[in-house]
Design the sequence.
């Protein structure tokens, strides 16, 4: 298995991406081609125990910034790391591509260069959500703001295939993000989508509300990009407020500090439960080859975990499973 790893555009620099990849290579028999500033990367690689014959390079210092218009940047900056990686991914030699760079550029590039699978309207930005019962996935996480009902149906099928192949959910529960749980709730988009999902060959369990995201009762949450992104950011913001308030409370007096020491292990376990770094990266579903997006602020552990998820995605041939869903429909 040969993977392309983009080392540019991450918040914490190329070092953590290279080191996280090398840590993974010590445990997995994969080959890697790093995309970035070759001489800088080699200075890190020369100190590793990984066989240097398993490592290659595509030299570039150019990358697409988050402030740039994605489609325009993909077309103009052809030697930037993301379009370079995606063009190489189209060759049979390579099996997957991972980047921490611009989400918009990665989605635009995957659509324009890698191309969508047949019968799929748009690639979906899949977001892995840590929950009390393991991982769930939400799609779309913000790439497709306006979605007709049939596009949400496609997201449900793709999300179900991913949950089976990578999250090891035998019969993943698929839910539609809505303002209430009862059938008939929501706007025209949600009502029509509900009807379509009832007819899909998946385990559709009905509507769910955003307040239930972190309980983990559902494995796949289907949403348009606007609603999905709002739900994710509201949940993330609420979690940050609660954790910061808890920390301030524990440090507010000697008595509370002593109490904090008594519950230290429990707090650590809680933090680990909701740590996105355990999952590392998630795919753009609906394109012809594996394209994975890692968080911009990923550290070494997150990169290592993200590559593990991509390897599993490739080994289990999730893209073929997605193709089968749509071939059977036609």
Sequence:
């Amino acid at each position: 298995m040969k993977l392309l790893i983009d080392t540019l555009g991450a918040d914490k620099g190329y070092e953590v991406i290279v080191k996280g990849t090398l840590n993974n290579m010590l445990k997995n028999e994969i080959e890697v081609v790093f995309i970035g500033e070759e001489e800088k990367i080699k200075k890190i690689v020369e100190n590793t125990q990984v066989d240097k014959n398993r490592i290659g390079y595509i030299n570039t210092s150019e990358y697409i910034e988050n402030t740039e218009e994605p489609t325009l940047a993909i077309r103009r900056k052809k030697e930037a790391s993301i379009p370079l990686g995606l063009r190489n991914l189209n060759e049979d030699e390579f099996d997957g591509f991972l980047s921490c760079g611009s989400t918009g550029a990665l989605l635009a590039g995957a659509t324009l260069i890698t191309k969508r699978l047949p019968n799929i309207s748009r690639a979906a930005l899949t977001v892995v959500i840590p929950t009390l019962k393991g991982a769930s996935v939400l799609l779309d996480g913000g790439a497709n703001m306006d979605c007709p009902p049939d596009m949400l149906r496609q997201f449900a099928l793709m999300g179900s295939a991913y949950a089976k192949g990578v999250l090891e959910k035998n019969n993943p529960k698929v839910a539609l993000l809505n303002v209430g749980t009862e059938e008939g709730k929501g706007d025209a988009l949600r009502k029509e989508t509900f009807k379509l999902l009832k007819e899909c060959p998946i385990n559709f369990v009905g509507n769910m509300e955003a307040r239930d995201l972190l309980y983990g009762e559902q494995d796949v949450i289907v949403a348009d990009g606007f609603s999905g992104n709002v739900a994710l950011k509201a949940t993330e913001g609420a979690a940050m407020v609660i954790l910061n308030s808890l920390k301030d409370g524990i440090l507010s007096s000697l008595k509370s500090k002593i109490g904090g020491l008594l519950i230290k292990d429990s707090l650590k376990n809680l933090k680990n439960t909701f740590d996105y770094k355990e999952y590392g990266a998630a795919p753009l579903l609906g394109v012809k080859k594996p394209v994975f997006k890692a968080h911009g602020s990923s550290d070494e552990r997150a990169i290592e975990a993200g590559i593990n998820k991509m390897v599993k995605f490739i080994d289990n041939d999730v893209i073929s499973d997605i193709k089968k869903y749509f071939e059977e429909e036609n």
Q: What stands out?
A: The radius of gyration is 21 Å.
